[in-house]
Structures are given as structure tokens and as C-alpha cells.
What does this fold into?
Amino acid sequence: MKLPVDVSRIYEGERIREDEAFVCLGEPGVELLRVSESLREGVVVSGRELEEMKQGEHLPFGLRVLVKGSLSRDAEGVLERRLHEFINYIQGVSHEGSRDNVRMRISREAVEKGLKLEHVGMVVAELLRKEYPAISQVSVEIITDEAAVRELEEQALEVYRQRDERAAELRDEDVDVFYACEICENHAPKHECIISPSRPSGCGSISWLEAKAAVEMGEQAIKPVRKGRVIDEAKGEFEGVNEHSRAKGRERVFLHSVFEHPHPQCSCAQAVVFYIPEVDGFGIVESTFKGKTPFGIDFATLIKQIGDGRQHTGFTGVSIAYLRSPSFLKGDGGWSRVVWITSGLREMLRGTIPEEHLEGILTEREAATVEELQRLMEGRKEEPESRHAQMVQVPGRWRLRVNFQNTEFRVKEIVIE
Ligand code: SF4
Ligand SMILES: [Zn+2]
It folds into this structure.
């Protein structure tokens, strides 16, 4: 395959600033990989090619990949995730995000050398075949026509929903093995996602089922991790995960708590959960939200600070599927502890957030800053506490008003009768 630019792992960390870009693709941006029995091998571009675009344009982007071979459908998520990596190997091309939030920039220099979108498709097809001998044929369609991208987006959302639903049937307690994904180590050294049934990957592309299928297919970047003894069920601390994580310099990893030893994150997280000490609660912001968090910074700035593959107490990168998990931060009180989310997430998670908490969670529309959050929460301070408070009778004439938070509790009042 003869290309006008280089293709190598060394370009994976290459970032293309907007002023260096010939075009920015991904408004909207969506990619979908499917295992298919019938496909027409080759690469097609539907819509305008790079040479038909104008410098500085912002355009839609769709990437539809079909693969044929002895593959389980559960392998789709992992293969789809590899597209991000493969495209980033191309000199002068940067790819960010996953699923229906994909952004791609192509440098002026690469276009001047003659790079075409067709070449991007050829690289994807070639690397998929090379890395996965089980794949016999690949078909790639790159779409820049808006109506066709929207059509792909609609199909893709339904496929993502089915994948997430299938994966959500399992729980951490149902299995003895978790998985560790190292695909993002190149851009976040020592990063890995521990993927358990109750905690799908931060990028949202790899569930436990998909990680399992990938390992069975011989994927080297994903390793099985013995779950081992349960140390703390609520926080999601497991002996086998801690043992495994020590090789990466992490003493302990909590899958379901953001404090002390939270799960690390890279820049691919679909959303970030952050602790707001002033109100003793969590905020959540998703990668597609363009506004500011109550801290006064946007998602891009936040993920730059914490997406380095290290553990940052008070912060964790999560997928939308994990926000839907019954184990979502159960070591910290789950949804009862969330005080702020974006209005987009609030809509998306209607039906997931328990009714009794939904009304109490503020969005950027009501509280744009920590001060506003404090002021609004001050006005109803008693309400959430009384919601969880219970009277407990102790021997003698004493009764205690107690606030429960999972297994921990706080005595609010002693009543002597
Ligand atoms: S974000 Fe995590 S699960 Fe997703 S590709 Fe990167 S390391 Fe793997
Ligand atoms: Zn990443």
C-alpha cells in the first residue's frame, strides 16, 4: 500500500491544533463496526473527498466498517475501539472520542502531500486484517455527507443500545475474572481500564462481554485479571485487581468509589465524575457538553488535568453505561450523593436516576458555579438529610435520629423520652 504520508505508532500522540488543520471532521461524528457475513471488500467515500473541501471547514464524519471472519459479535466493541488507535497512526491525522462522539482533524501538510480520506480507509482495513488474522475481509465506508452520517448515527445508536443492554445483565458477583485494557497506554502512560460487568470501560466501547470476546480472539492489549477475594463490596475493591494493578504502580483500585484509590482515567472517558467538597456531593459532566462545570472549567480542560492515566482522588472518568449501572459509585452513596449534572445528561438518564433523587439534582441552568450550588442547596439542607434519616430505638429511653449512607451512619439527634 503506497501512501503520501507515514503510518506508524510514533504518530499516535500527534495532536493537530485547529489552526494547523485543513479540516475538522465530526460535527456530528460517528463510527460503527459490525461483523457481517456479506460485504463488498474495499474502501468507498460517500460525500466530499478532502480535495473537494475548503480549508477551515467543519464537516460531518461517519465511519462504517464491516468485517467478515470467524468472529463473535461481542468482538465488535473492541475492534471498533481500535479504529481510534489505527487512525491516529497516520501522520497528519488525529482522532478523538468514540461511538457517536468522534472528532477527526487532518493537517494542511498532509493534504498538501496528497492525503485522501480513501487512504484513511485503506489504513483501517489493512491494520484490521494485519492485527486480527481471524478477519478475512473488510469493507470501509467513510461518509462526509450530512444526511448519510445522520442515517449511520441512527443505526449506530440502536446498536450501542443493544450492546449496552446485553452487557448490563451481568454483575461483578457473577464472574471470577475481570479484564484490563491497555489500548490507551500510548497517550496515557501506565493507564489501563479495569473492565468488570458492573463497570464498563471509560470510553464506553468495551463491556466485560466484549473484553472477554476480544481475549478469546487473541487481543493482546486486553488481559484477564483474576478477581480474587472481595475486600470491600461497596467500594468495589478486589484482591486480584489490587495485585494486578501493583505492576502499574497502583497499590489499590476502587471500582465504585472516587475517593482515595479511584479508577484511573485517560482522555477517552465519556464523562467525568468530580467531587465538590463545598457541598459534599458529586458533579458529572459528559465529553459532548460545551459549557462549564461549577468549577469554571469545561470538560476539555478538566480531562486534560486528570486524563493522564493516574489516580486523582475525587475524580473518575466513566462511561455512560457505567452511569446506568446499579453499582454506580455505590461505595460513595451512588445517585444520592450526586448534586449537579448537565441538563443533557439529566435528560439522557431519565429512567436511570432514581425518582427520589432526580428532582434534587441541579444542572448548569440552575447552578453555574459552586457558590450558586451552595446557595441553592443551603435553602433545602434539611430536606435530603431527613430523606435518609431514620429513628433508631436503643435500649432504655433513648432514640437516635441516624443518617445512613450504605453501611456508614451519622447520629444527627439523640431523643430522651
Ligand atoms: S479508554 Fe480504557 S477501555 Fe477504552 S480503549 Fe482506552 S484503555 Fe481501553
Ligand atoms: Zn484513552
In short: The CA atoms of residues 189 and 309 lie 6 Å apart. The chain has three domains: 9-165, 172-378, 386-416.
